[in-house]
Amino acid sequence: MKLLRDIIFIKRLVLLSFVGILTFVAPVFASPQQVTPVRSNTKTAPLGKPNKTTAIPDDVKNGPISSNNKTAPAKGSPQDTAKTSDKLEYSAKDSTKVNKKDGTVYLYGRARVIYQGLELDADYITYNDKTKNIFASGVKNSKGKYVGRPIFKMPGQGNSIADSLRYNTETGAGKIFGVFTEQEGGFFSGGIAKKQPDDEIHSKGQLYSTCNLPHPHFGIHITKGIVTEKQIITGPVYLEIEDIPLPLGLPFAFFPKPNKKSSGFILPSPGEDYTRGFFLREGGYYIGLNDYWDAKILGTIYTRGSHQLDLTSNYTKRYKYNGNVALTYGSNRYGIEGTPGYAPVKDFSVRWSHSQNANANPGSTFSASVNIASRGFNKRTAVGGYYDPTQLSSNNLNSSISYSKMLFDGLFNLSMAARVDQDISRGTTTLQLPDMNLGMTRNIYPFASKNTIGDPKWYEKISVGYTMQSSNTVTAGDSILFKKDILNKFRNGVQHNIPIAMNFNVLKYFNFNTSINYTERWHFQSIRKTFLRQTAGTPDLVKIDTIPGFNRYGTYTVGGGVTTKIYSTAQFKNLGRLKALRHVMTPSVSFGYTPNFADPKYGNYLPALYGGNPNDPVRDQKGDPVYYAKQEGLLYGPPGTGSSANISFGIQNNVEAKVLVPNDTTGKGEKKVPIINNLSITSSYNLLAKSFKLSPFNVSGSTPFSDKFQVNYQAVLNPYVVGDSINKFNGNRDYFLLDKYTWQRGRAPRVTSFGFSFDYSLNPEALKRRNDTEQDRKMDAIQKGLTPEQSEALAKVSRDPNAFVDFNIPWNFAFRYSFDYSTDAVGRNRRITNSLSFNGDANITPKWKVTFDSGWNFETNSFAITRFGIYRDLHCWDMSFSWIPFGTQQMYSVDIKVKASVLQDLKLSKRKNYYTRY
């Protein structure tokens, strides 16, 4: 079996080489693209005596003359007005000389000739009116550098550049020497090209490569060929590496030469999967619909009955939008034939990404980030073969399609979205279809005067806002999500919010605010409960009916608050470099009152009745009537029970030090160092609560230890004493809260929750580059109109060591740690969770880099998904090795490939996927 796999591997290498040659040559001649002149790889021939000739393709276009395919005239020269005139037009910037004896015109310095569609620019041009010959070349400047090479455009062709050329205007024949041009990421060099009178071009000994060196590392050697208007016919072509011709080639080739995208077959890659057998992977057909839209249909088949179909499409409209769609469907068989595990397992994936240019349609945006897959797709297919550790370990898939538009001169913003959230571990899906929001972008001041002089009146400071939210959502299992009955399980409603506020200063240093916040909620159904009495000791049965119909209720809160800042500074003279400490406190107090909207007079809560009999109410253990809410279980739920009069209070602290810096280049000799950032303590007190009026204290803040190391922390403190008693039924000790404060017994409040986190990079240059890259990515996302989901996806690609390797950073090691401790209200059921992740890379040599990323799972006391990588820069090629040595996702891959995307199929890959270990 091993020998058979080795034979398949060698066959695959040979087949990939042939595929590479086809993909090498076909894009070069099939789709004219922009060219860029680069340094010639030949020695400059004396004028009129070229010492080396090089072929140039006939279909190169969009060269460096100008962006509109029209050769720009030299400065000071006449405009190009007669492109197809029979009269030869010429000009030169420096000088023009005419030899009347032999009929030769000499043009020096940015010379230009136009004749019947031929456009030619060079620093030196001669034209003989008797022989009808044109010769053009560059010149050597004072430093001996060859400059001003000919740039020319033939009728119906694009721009090209050469060392020198000859052309006969009468016969239409010509020769071109010393060409080295770039086209679609590739370079032409060497050979001889001759233009025939019938506009055919005959070439010989031409080399095409994606290596940009004057002497390429590799290339496709075209022995000879004929280029016509619509096709290219070549003789033998073969692969050449380091000037060594390889026995990998084709005896002849024929290529159409359309001026648009062309369609064609995509050859599959052979191989073996230990579980599913031998395969032909990703063979199919490419459809070049037009310049803005294409599609690719790929199929994979296995000898043991598995198969997969992929459809991908890219679309774009310049300055408007771009996106891509990818659909995958697979039926895979695992295990041994004849066993239950051999039954086909069907998976699917739908991905759609759409982004709109920020300037395409000011005032409105449309975006989409869709990622929907079957429950086992990521695990069974290794995330489509990308082995993304984040997605492999993720249990959630999120998708959204959104549209927003500014209304009424930007006063309102309307946004609509459809969202799908999948919980893969539970097999449930939440649909929000649609989710709509309408809100004011700024508050208005209805009583403000347009011509206010001096300070505004108190009533002119009153502001009013408005927001509206509506949603239609359902959560269900994957198996019943798309069944007809699911329509009855949707929860929907509309919520309106109108805040009215007024801010003003009191006694100069206090900022006071008052507000009234009104909220109204609409539902389109309500519930009714009917209770059925059971025997003693058995809970009552409850029958719940959903009643269609409009159902609304409104709530409001009245409140106000005051805040100020308190500054304190301590100066030091004899504490070394410490010169001062500054403490800024921001205390705040606010009050809010909410009536009891559960009162039966509001009609939101109904009495619980046995059998619907108003004379037989349900009572609690104290004998009081029991009520239930009509909106129970609906989208926004019922109003809260009980009235509240909360006094919320808190204090925020910032501490910084002023230290001496002897080597400060600014001359000030000191700098500010933060010690504590935003350390806040908040709580509230409900005046109307019958017991436990004080809420737990919430503490949060951060402490920076250096410019690149900061610890964030948070905690919850419970102020109530814990009591206990013996349970008379089971003999266990029960714990409960007493309505007494811990400080009444000389104790501090109890910590029921605590956590902290930090991340650190040992290489400050890597951290700086990471932050700069993150900022550049965010700005790029804003300019391209990307959604947050698409931006995050782009960030993941940028963080992938196989996608981008930065050799400018010699080494880096970074890690992140988080710790969380929590208990219940009485201090029991303690739980500690923490996580550690780390990654790094190092340059072994200027061309070798190793990378790794891993983490530690404290619950299982084992490593998280750990991946090692090695990258080798081979100039125009690269080699990468990726390895997950242990765990459930074990795999390795080795790739040697050409860097240029135009030759993406010219590669050699060896992989062992984690699902082939059976």
Automatic annotation (TrEMBL):
Tree of life domain: Bacteria
Region Disordered, residue ranges: 35-88
InterPro entries: LptD, LptD_2
Location of the LPS-assembly protein LptD central domain: 232-720
Biased segments, Polar residues type: 35-44
Name recorded for this polypeptide: LPS-assembly protein LptD
